[in-house]
Design brief:
Length: 394
Protein backbone atom coordinates (compact mmCIF):
# COMPACT_ATOMS: atom_id res chain seq x y z
CA UNK A 1 0.00 0.00 0.00
CA UNK A 2 1.12 3.54 -0.70
CA UNK A 3 1.78 5.77 2.30
CA UNK A 4 -0.45 8.85 1.96
CA UNK A 5 -4.06 8.22 3.01
CA UNK A 6 -6.35 11.22 2.71
CA UNK A 7 -9.62 9.56 1.69
CA UNK A 8 -11.07 6.12 2.27
CA UNK A 9 -14.18 5.16 0.30
CA UNK A 10 -16.39 2.29 1.48
CA UNK A 11 -18.82 0.65 -0.94
CA UNK A 12 -21.61 -0.82 1.17
CA UNK A 13 -23.08 0.63 4.36
CA UNK A 14 -24.18 -2.61 6.01
CA UNK A 15 -22.60 -4.10 9.10
CA UNK A 16 -19.18 -4.58 7.50
CA UNK A 17 -18.93 -1.16 5.91
CA UNK A 18 -20.35 0.82 8.83
CA UNK A 19 -18.23 -1.00 11.39
CA UNK A 20 -15.17 -0.37 9.26
CA UNK A 21 -15.95 3.35 9.17
CA UNK A 22 -16.46 3.42 12.93
CA UNK A 23 -13.24 1.48 13.54
CA UNK A 24 -11.24 3.82 11.31
CA UNK A 25 -12.21 6.71 13.56
CA UNK A 26 -11.53 4.69 16.70
CA UNK A 27 -8.07 3.89 15.32
CA UNK A 28 -7.35 7.60 14.92
CA UNK A 29 -7.78 8.02 11.17
CA UNK A 30 -8.50 11.73 10.64
CA UNK A 31 -8.93 11.79 6.88
CA UNK A 32 -12.08 11.71 4.80
CA UNK A 33 -14.39 8.68 5.00
CA UNK A 34 -17.13 8.27 2.39
CA UNK A 35 -19.68 5.53 3.11
CA UNK A 36 -21.87 4.57 0.16
CA UNK A 37 -25.17 2.73 0.61
CA UNK A 38 -27.45 1.58 -2.20
CA UNK A 39 -30.59 1.70 -0.05
CA UNK A 40 -32.28 4.92 1.04
CA UNK A 41 -32.38 3.80 4.69
CA UNK A 42 -29.82 4.55 7.36
CA UNK A 43 -27.46 1.58 7.88
CA UNK A 44 -29.05 -1.30 9.78
CA UNK A 45 -28.40 -4.88 10.81
CA UNK A 46 -30.25 -7.82 9.27
CA UNK A 47 -30.79 -10.50 11.97
CA UNK A 48 -33.89 -8.76 13.44
CA UNK A 49 -35.50 -8.76 10.00
CA UNK A 50 -36.26 -12.48 10.28
CA UNK A 51 -36.81 -12.37 14.05
CA UNK A 52 -38.08 -9.52 16.24
CA UNK A 53 -38.89 -7.01 13.49
CA UNK A 54 -40.64 -9.65 11.40
CA UNK A 55 -42.72 -10.72 14.39
CA UNK A 56 -43.66 -7.14 15.23
CA UNK A 57 -41.87 -7.39 18.58
CA UNK A 58 -39.51 -4.56 17.62
CA UNK A 59 -39.87 -1.51 15.42
CA UNK A 60 -37.82 -1.38 12.19
CA UNK A 61 -35.91 1.62 13.55
CA UNK A 62 -34.50 -0.62 16.29
CA UNK A 63 -32.37 -2.38 13.66
CA UNK A 64 -30.54 0.82 12.75
CA UNK A 65 -26.88 0.89 13.71
CA UNK A 66 -26.68 4.59 14.61
CA UNK A 67 -28.91 7.68 14.49
CA UNK A 68 -28.37 10.02 11.54
CA UNK A 69 -26.52 12.62 13.61
CA UNK A 70 -23.88 10.08 14.61
CA UNK A 71 -22.39 9.96 11.11
CA UNK A 72 -21.96 13.73 10.99
CA UNK A 73 -20.48 13.75 14.48
CA UNK A 74 -17.92 11.15 13.39
CA UNK A 75 -17.09 13.03 10.22
CA UNK A 76 -18.38 10.17 8.05
CA UNK A 77 -19.84 11.27 4.73
CA UNK A 78 -22.77 8.83 4.56
CA UNK A 79 -24.48 8.77 1.17
CA UNK A 80 -27.59 6.63 0.99
CA UNK A 81 -29.41 5.71 -2.20
CA UNK A 82 -26.09 5.80 -4.06
CA UNK A 83 -24.77 2.96 -6.18
CA UNK A 84 -21.18 2.47 -7.34
CA UNK A 85 -21.07 1.53 -11.02
CA UNK A 86 -17.38 1.27 -11.91
CA UNK A 87 -14.10 0.90 -10.01
CA UNK A 88 -11.29 2.55 -11.99
CA UNK A 89 -8.23 1.05 -10.33
CA UNK A 90 -5.74 2.91 -12.54
CA UNK A 91 -7.22 6.31 -11.71
CA UNK A 92 -8.16 5.22 -8.16
CA UNK A 93 -11.72 6.45 -8.63
CA UNK A 94 -15.21 5.06 -8.13
CA UNK A 95 -17.74 6.06 -10.75
CA UNK A 96 -21.17 6.55 -9.18
CA UNK A 97 -24.52 6.16 -10.90
CA UNK A 98 -25.26 9.64 -12.16
CA UNK A 99 -21.71 10.27 -13.34
CA UNK A 100 -19.83 11.53 -10.28
CA UNK A 101 -16.24 10.32 -9.98
CA UNK A 102 -15.10 9.80 -6.40
CA UNK A 103 -11.36 9.58 -5.82
CA UNK A 104 -9.92 7.29 -3.14
CA UNK A 105 -6.59 6.45 -1.57
CA UNK A 106 -7.97 3.26 -0.05
CA UNK A 107 -11.15 1.42 -0.97
CA UNK A 108 -13.18 -1.09 1.00
CA UNK A 109 -15.63 -3.35 -0.82
CA UNK A 110 -18.47 -4.40 1.47
CA UNK A 111 -21.39 -4.77 -0.95
CA UNK A 112 -23.02 -7.73 0.81
CA UNK A 113 -25.10 -10.32 -1.01
CA UNK A 114 -28.39 -10.60 -2.85
CA UNK A 115 -31.03 -13.30 -2.39
CA UNK A 116 -31.13 -15.86 -5.18
CA UNK A 117 -34.21 -15.73 -7.36
CA UNK A 118 -36.47 -18.17 -9.17
CA UNK A 119 -37.62 -15.96 -12.06
CA UNK A 120 -39.83 -18.63 -13.61
CA UNK A 121 -42.08 -18.47 -10.52
CA UNK A 122 -42.46 -14.67 -10.51
CA UNK A 123 -45.66 -14.51 -12.52
CA UNK A 124 -47.88 -11.40 -12.72
CA UNK A 125 -50.30 -11.14 -9.83
CA UNK A 126 -48.60 -13.72 -7.63
CA UNK A 127 -47.13 -12.47 -4.35
CA UNK A 128 -43.60 -13.91 -4.65
CA UNK A 129 -41.13 -12.44 -2.18
CA UNK A 130 -37.60 -12.58 -0.85
CA UNK A 131 -36.30 -11.44 2.55
CA UNK A 132 -33.19 -9.31 2.58
CA UNK A 133 -34.03 -5.68 3.27
CA UNK A 134 -35.88 -3.81 5.98
CA UNK A 135 -38.63 -3.10 3.46
CA UNK A 136 -38.89 -6.82 2.66
CA UNK A 137 -39.35 -7.58 6.36
CA UNK A 138 -42.00 -4.92 6.89
CA UNK A 139 -44.02 -6.13 3.92
CA UNK A 140 -43.72 -9.81 4.83
CA UNK A 141 -44.83 -9.17 8.42
CA UNK A 142 -48.29 -8.25 7.19
CA UNK A 143 -48.57 -11.58 5.33
CA UNK A 144 -47.41 -14.03 7.99
CA UNK A 145 -50.92 -14.91 9.15
CA UNK A 146 -52.00 -16.13 5.71
CA UNK A 147 -51.16 -19.18 3.65
CA UNK A 148 -47.40 -19.07 3.17
CA UNK A 149 -45.33 -21.28 0.90
CA UNK A 150 -41.61 -21.14 1.69
CA UNK A 151 -39.17 -22.47 -0.89
CA UNK A 152 -35.88 -23.51 0.69
CA UNK A 153 -34.98 -25.01 4.04
CA UNK A 154 -32.03 -22.83 5.01
CA UNK A 155 -31.80 -20.61 8.07
CA UNK A 156 -33.96 -17.82 6.61
CA UNK A 157 -36.67 -20.25 5.51
CA UNK A 158 -36.81 -21.94 8.91
CA UNK A 159 -36.83 -18.68 10.87
CA UNK A 160 -39.64 -17.26 8.74
CA UNK A 161 -41.58 -20.52 9.12
CA UNK A 162 -41.30 -20.21 12.90
CA UNK A 163 -42.38 -16.55 12.80
CA UNK A 164 -45.36 -17.36 10.58
CA UNK A 165 -46.55 -20.14 12.85
CA UNK A 166 -46.33 -17.80 15.84
CA UNK A 167 -48.47 -15.35 13.87
CA UNK A 168 -51.04 -18.05 13.17
CA UNK A 169 -50.15 -18.60 9.53
CA UNK A 170 -50.47 -21.84 7.60
CA UNK A 171 -46.98 -22.76 6.41
CA UNK A 172 -45.82 -25.17 3.75
CA UNK A 173 -42.04 -25.54 3.56
CA UNK A 174 -40.69 -27.08 0.33
CA UNK A 175 -37.16 -28.47 0.68
CA UNK A 176 -35.28 -29.97 -2.26
CA UNK A 177 -33.22 -32.34 -0.13
CA UNK A 178 -34.17 -35.15 2.21
CA UNK A 179 -33.92 -32.83 5.25
CA UNK A 180 -33.54 -29.09 5.79
CA UNK A 181 -29.91 -28.08 6.43
CA UNK A 182 -28.62 -31.64 5.92
CA UNK A 183 -25.63 -30.48 3.89
CA UNK A 184 -24.54 -28.13 6.66
CA UNK A 185 -25.54 -30.06 9.78
CA UNK A 186 -25.64 -33.72 8.79
CA UNK A 187 -28.70 -35.93 9.00
CA UNK A 188 -28.82 -36.38 12.79
CA UNK A 189 -28.84 -32.68 13.62
CA UNK A 190 -30.94 -31.73 10.60
CA UNK A 191 -33.58 -34.17 11.81
CA UNK A 192 -33.84 -32.15 15.04
CA UNK A 193 -34.91 -29.09 13.04
CA UNK A 194 -37.26 -31.08 10.82
CA UNK A 195 -38.98 -32.59 13.87
CA UNK A 196 -39.17 -29.19 15.56
CA UNK A 197 -41.05 -27.60 12.68
CA UNK A 198 -43.38 -30.53 12.15
CA UNK A 199 -44.26 -30.44 15.86
CA UNK A 200 -45.32 -26.84 15.32
CA UNK A 201 -47.59 -27.83 12.43
CA UNK A 202 -45.37 -26.73 9.56
CA UNK A 203 -46.20 -28.81 6.49
CA UNK A 204 -42.60 -29.79 5.71
CA UNK A 205 -42.29 -31.29 2.23
CA UNK A 206 -38.85 -32.82 1.71
CA UNK A 207 -37.55 -33.93 -1.66
CA UNK A 208 -39.88 -31.34 -3.15
CA UNK A 209 -39.52 -28.44 -5.55
CA UNK A 210 -42.02 -25.91 -6.85
CA UNK A 211 -42.40 -26.43 -10.57
CA UNK A 212 -44.92 -23.77 -11.55
CA UNK A 213 -46.88 -20.85 -10.15
CA UNK A 214 -50.14 -19.67 -11.72
CA UNK A 215 -52.26 -16.68 -10.76
CA UNK A 216 -55.79 -16.72 -12.15
CA UNK A 217 -58.87 -14.82 -10.94
CA UNK A 218 -57.09 -13.46 -7.85
CA UNK A 219 -55.95 -16.91 -6.77
CA UNK A 220 -52.37 -18.16 -6.72
CA UNK A 221 -51.67 -21.85 -7.13
CA UNK A 222 -48.29 -23.54 -6.88
CA UNK A 223 -47.66 -26.91 -8.53
CA UNK A 224 -45.19 -29.10 -6.64
CA UNK A 225 -42.82 -31.64 -8.14
CA UNK A 226 -45.09 -34.50 -7.03
CA UNK A 227 -47.95 -33.00 -9.06
CA UNK A 228 -49.94 -31.62 -6.10
CA UNK A 229 -51.24 -28.07 -6.33
CA UNK A 230 -51.49 -25.72 -3.36
CA UNK A 231 -53.49 -22.52 -3.14
CA UNK A 232 -51.38 -19.93 -1.34
CA UNK A 233 -51.39 -16.24 -0.50
CA UNK A 234 -47.66 -15.56 -0.42
CA UNK A 235 -44.55 -17.38 -1.67
CA UNK A 236 -41.19 -16.72 -0.05
CA UNK A 237 -38.09 -17.76 -1.99
CA UNK A 238 -35.38 -18.57 0.57
CA UNK A 239 -32.75 -20.47 -1.42
CA UNK A 240 -29.68 -18.62 -0.23
CA UNK A 241 -27.82 -15.50 -1.29
CA UNK A 242 -25.16 -14.79 -3.90
CA UNK A 243 -22.32 -12.36 -3.24
CA UNK A 244 -22.83 -8.97 -4.86
CA UNK A 245 -19.66 -8.92 -6.93
CA UNK A 246 -20.34 -6.06 -9.31
CA UNK A 247 -18.50 -3.78 -9.94
CA UNK A 248 -15.64 -5.70 -8.29
CA UNK A 249 -15.78 -8.41 -10.98
CA UNK A 250 -15.51 -5.86 -13.78
CA UNK A 251 -12.43 -4.50 -12.03
CA UNK A 252 -10.83 -7.95 -12.04
CA UNK A 253 -11.18 -8.49 -8.29
CA UNK A 254 -14.00 -11.04 -8.05
CA UNK A 255 -15.53 -14.16 -9.49
CA UNK A 256 -19.00 -15.65 -9.03
CA UNK A 257 -18.03 -17.03 -5.60
CA UNK A 258 -17.03 -13.69 -4.15
CA UNK A 259 -14.29 -11.08 -3.89
CA UNK A 260 -11.04 -12.95 -3.22
CA UNK A 261 -8.99 -11.59 -0.32
CA UNK A 262 -5.92 -12.79 1.54
CA UNK A 263 -5.72 -13.58 5.24
CA UNK A 264 -5.66 -9.86 6.11
CA UNK A 265 -8.75 -9.14 3.89
CA UNK A 266 -6.69 -7.47 1.14
CA UNK A 267 -7.58 -8.04 -2.53
CA UNK A 268 -5.12 -8.47 -5.39
CA UNK A 269 -5.01 -4.67 -5.47
CA UNK A 270 -2.94 -3.52 -2.48
CA UNK A 271 -5.12 -0.43 -1.97
CA UNK A 272 -8.43 -2.32 -1.91
CA UNK A 273 -9.84 -4.58 0.80
CA UNK A 274 -13.10 -6.50 1.05
CA UNK A 275 -15.17 -7.60 4.03
CA UNK A 276 -18.52 -9.13 4.88
CA UNK A 277 -20.87 -11.31 2.87
CA UNK A 278 -19.05 -10.86 -0.45
CA UNK A 279 -15.52 -11.51 0.82
CA UNK A 280 -13.98 -14.86 -0.17
CA UNK A 281 -11.44 -14.99 2.62
CA UNK A 282 -8.26 -17.05 2.99
CA UNK A 283 -8.83 -17.97 6.63
CA UNK A 284 -5.52 -19.03 8.23
CA UNK A 285 -7.17 -22.00 9.93
CA UNK A 286 -10.18 -22.96 7.83
CA UNK A 287 -8.93 -22.26 4.32
CA UNK A 288 -10.80 -20.21 1.72
CA UNK A 289 -14.34 -19.52 2.90
CA UNK A 290 -17.13 -17.00 2.43
CA UNK A 291 -19.27 -16.31 5.48
CA UNK A 292 -22.54 -14.40 5.20
CA UNK A 293 -23.38 -14.01 8.87
CA UNK A 294 -23.84 -11.09 11.25
CA UNK A 295 -20.75 -11.62 13.41
CA UNK A 296 -18.38 -12.03 10.47
CA UNK A 297 -19.61 -8.80 8.89
CA UNK A 298 -18.99 -6.85 12.09
CA UNK A 299 -15.59 -8.32 12.88
CA UNK A 300 -14.30 -8.38 9.31
CA UNK A 301 -15.30 -4.73 8.92
CA UNK A 302 -13.36 -3.80 12.03
CA UNK A 303 -10.35 -5.84 10.96
CA UNK A 304 -10.39 -4.41 7.44
CA UNK A 305 -10.09 -0.93 8.94
CA UNK A 306 -6.71 -1.92 10.35
CA UNK A 307 -5.59 -3.41 7.06
CA UNK A 308 -6.64 -0.27 5.16
CA UNK A 309 -4.35 1.71 7.46
CA UNK A 310 -1.40 -0.59 6.76
CA UNK A 311 -1.93 -3.48 9.15
CA UNK A 312 -0.72 -6.95 8.20
CA UNK A 313 -2.41 -9.12 10.84
CA UNK A 314 -4.50 -12.03 9.53
CA UNK A 315 -8.19 -12.17 10.33
CA UNK A 316 -8.36 -15.42 12.27
CA UNK A 317 -11.69 -15.16 14.12
CA UNK A 318 -13.83 -18.27 13.81
CA UNK A 319 -17.21 -17.71 12.12
CA UNK A 320 -20.16 -17.51 14.52
CA UNK A 321 -23.92 -17.34 14.11
CA UNK A 322 -27.08 -18.02 16.07
CA UNK A 323 -30.74 -18.75 15.51
CA UNK A 324 -33.91 -18.82 17.58
CA UNK A 325 -36.86 -20.91 16.43
CA UNK A 326 -39.81 -21.56 18.77
CA UNK A 327 -38.21 -22.79 22.02
CA UNK A 328 -34.94 -23.79 20.35
CA UNK A 329 -31.94 -21.52 20.51
CA UNK A 330 -28.50 -22.36 19.24
CA UNK A 331 -25.05 -20.86 18.66
CA UNK A 332 -22.65 -22.19 16.04
CA UNK A 333 -18.89 -21.66 15.72
CA UNK A 334 -16.65 -22.65 12.81
CA UNK A 335 -17.29 -23.56 9.19
CA UNK A 336 -17.48 -26.92 7.44
CA UNK A 337 -16.31 -25.28 4.20
CA UNK A 338 -16.27 -26.76 0.73
CA UNK A 339 -14.58 -29.93 2.00
CA UNK A 340 -17.46 -30.75 4.31
CA UNK A 341 -17.12 -33.12 7.26
CA UNK A 342 -16.72 -36.83 7.91
CA UNK A 343 -18.91 -37.25 10.97
CA UNK A 344 -20.78 -35.44 13.73
CA UNK A 345 -19.91 -35.99 17.38
CA UNK A 346 -22.96 -35.47 19.62
CA UNK A 347 -22.92 -34.87 23.37
CA UNK A 348 -25.99 -34.49 25.56
CA UNK A 349 -29.71 -35.03 25.19
CA UNK A 350 -30.51 -34.84 21.49
CA UNK A 351 -34.19 -35.90 21.80
CA UNK A 352 -34.64 -33.34 24.59
CA UNK A 353 -32.91 -30.68 22.48
CA UNK A 354 -30.21 -29.81 24.99
CA UNK A 355 -26.93 -30.92 23.42
CA UNK A 356 -23.68 -30.01 21.71
CA UNK A 357 -22.58 -31.10 18.23
CA UNK A 358 -19.08 -31.10 16.76
CA UNK A 359 -18.33 -31.55 13.06
CA UNK A 360 -15.14 -33.51 12.42
CA UNK A 361 -13.01 -33.78 9.29
CA UNK A 362 -10.13 -36.20 9.59
CA UNK A 363 -8.77 -35.61 13.07
CA UNK A 364 -9.79 -31.96 13.26
CA UNK A 365 -12.90 -30.30 14.70
CA UNK A 366 -14.04 -27.84 12.02
CA UNK A 367 -17.27 -26.60 13.63
CA UNK A 368 -19.35 -26.92 16.75
CA UNK A 369 -22.63 -25.75 18.18
CA UNK A 370 -24.84 -26.00 21.22
CA UNK A 371 -28.61 -26.29 21.30
CA UNK A 372 -30.28 -24.83 24.41
CA UNK A 373 -27.05 -25.45 26.40
CA UNK A 374 -26.27 -21.85 27.22
CA UNK A 375 -23.19 -22.48 29.37
CA UNK A 376 -21.47 -24.42 26.58
CA UNK A 377 -20.49 -21.76 24.04
CA UNK A 378 -17.05 -21.06 25.52
CA UNK A 379 -16.20 -24.75 25.45
CA UNK A 380 -17.50 -25.09 21.90
CA UNK A 381 -15.39 -22.16 20.76
CA UNK A 382 -12.32 -23.59 22.50
CA UNK A 383 -12.66 -27.03 20.88
CA UNK A 384 -13.25 -25.88 17.30
CA UNK A 385 -9.99 -25.96 15.40
CA UNK A 386 -8.47 -28.50 17.75
CA UNK A 387 -8.00 -32.23 17.60
CA UNK A 388 -10.82 -34.73 17.82
CA UNK A 389 -8.95 -36.22 20.80
CA UNK A 390 -10.05 -33.22 22.88
CA UNK A 391 -13.78 -33.82 22.43
CA UNK A 392 -15.83 -34.83 25.47
CA UNK A 393 -17.26 -38.33 25.64
CA UNK A 394 -20.68 -38.89 24.10
Amino acid sequence: MSQQIDRIVIIGDGLAGTNAAQSLRERGFAGSIVLLGAEEHLPYERPPLSKAVLLGEAEPDSARLHPRDWYAEQGIDLRTGVRAEVIDRAAKEVLLRGGERLAYDRLLLAPGAQPRRLPHLEVPGADVRRLRTIDDSAALKDRLAGRLLIIGGGWIGLEVAAAARRAGGRVTLAVRGALPLAGVLGDEVAQVFADLHREHDVDLRTGTTVEEVRHVEDRTRARLSDGEELEVDTILVGIGAAPDVEPAAAAGLAGPDGIAVDAALRTADADICAAGDAALHEHPQLGRIRVDHWDAAIEQGRHAAGTLLGGQEPYARLPYFFTDQYDLGMEYVGHVGAKGFDRVHLVGDVPGRVFRAYWVRGESVVAGMHVNDWDAIDEVRRLVGGSVAGLPAR
